């Protein structure tokens, strides 16, 4: 995958988001993003953006160990 801004996540404290998801949220690479995994709120650093069309272009990539839990 190509990242026009930033890079792919390298650990479970980072996330990359699609360009459309970043644009709609008003967030930028380098900012923090609260993500709920199961019952736990995690504050991830946005380290990259990429172009993707799956799920209407609103996707994210991370190395979170989710163990079948819901992620929001």
Summary tags:
single chain; 72 residues; mainly beta; five-stranded mixed sheet; 10% helix
Characterization of the model:
The protein is mainly β. The protein has one domain. The chain is 10% helix and 38% strand. The chain contains 1 helix and 5 strands. It has one helix at residues 19-25; strands at 5-6, 14-18, 32-37, 40-50, 60-62. Strands 1, 2, 3, 4 and 5 form a 5-stranded mixed sheet that branches.
Radius of gyration: 11 Å
Number of domains: 1
Order of helices and strands: EEHEEE
Q: Main β-sheet: number of strands, strand sense, barrel status?
A: 5 strands, mixed
Number of strands: 5
Shape: globular
Helix content: under 10%
Number of helices: 1
> Which band does the percent of strand residues land in?
35-45%
Whole-number mean pLDDT: 82
Helix-and-strand structural type = mainly beta
Compute the separation of the termini in Å. 23 Å
Q: How would you summarize the topology of this molecule?
A:
Blueprint: E1 5-6, E2 14-18, H1 19-25, E3 32-37, E4 40-50, E5 60-62
Summarize this structure briefly.
The chain has 72 residues and is mostly beta strands. It has 1 helix and 5 strands. β3 and β4 form a beta hairpin.
């Amino acid at each position: 995958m190509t990242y026009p801004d930033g890079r792919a996540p390298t650990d479970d404290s980072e996330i990359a988001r699609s360009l459309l998801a970043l644009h709609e949220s008003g967030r930028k690479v380098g900012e923090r993003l609260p993500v709920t995994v199961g019952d736990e709120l995690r504050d991830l650093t946005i380290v990259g953006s990429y172009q993707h069309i799956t799920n209407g272009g609103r996707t994210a990539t991370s190395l979170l160990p989710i163990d079948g839990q819901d992620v929001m």
